[in-house]
TrEMBL record:
Domain 2Fe-2S ferredoxin-type: 17-66
A single GO molecular function term of this UniProt record: 2 iron, 2 sulfur cluster binding
Record's protein name: 2Fe-2S iron-sulfur cluster binding domain-containing protein
Superkingdom per UniProt: Bacteria
InterPro entries reported for this sequence: 2Fe-2S_ferredoxin-like_sf (IPR036010), 2Fe-2S_ferredoxin-type (IPR001041), 2Fe2S_fd_BS (IPR006058), Beta-grasp_dom_sf (IPR012675)
Length: 90
């Protein structure tokens, strides 16, 4: 058995999608675009490299570039509030 195979599975993180009111769970480390797609949510994208800002989301009052970030590990039982940022130029 290798050290890699002994790693515990990522803990689930609860997400509250503010636009729809949906609450979903994904493993910590899931990229934000995948988490949104699995929840039936749409995050706008542009460059998919993190430079244009089209994919900015608000996660517990912090702006996150969804195309280059992953759902963080959180305290057990904590729910992250996820909202879309609005940019008048996009």
């Amino acid at each position: 058995m290798t050290a890699e195979s002994r790693k515990p599975a990522p803990c689930p993180v609860r997400l509250h999608w503010l636009q729809s009111g949906r609450i979903t769970e994904v493993p910590a480390g899931t990229d934000w675009l995948t988490a949104a797609r699995q929840a039936g949510e749409t995050i706008p994208t542009g460059c998919l490299q993190g430079s244009c800002g089209a994919c900015d989301i608000d996660v517990d009052d912090e702006v996150v570039r969804a195309c280059i970030a992953a759902v963080p590990i959180t305290d057990s039982g904590k729910t992250l509030a996820v909202g879309l940022c609005s940019d008048p130029y996009w």
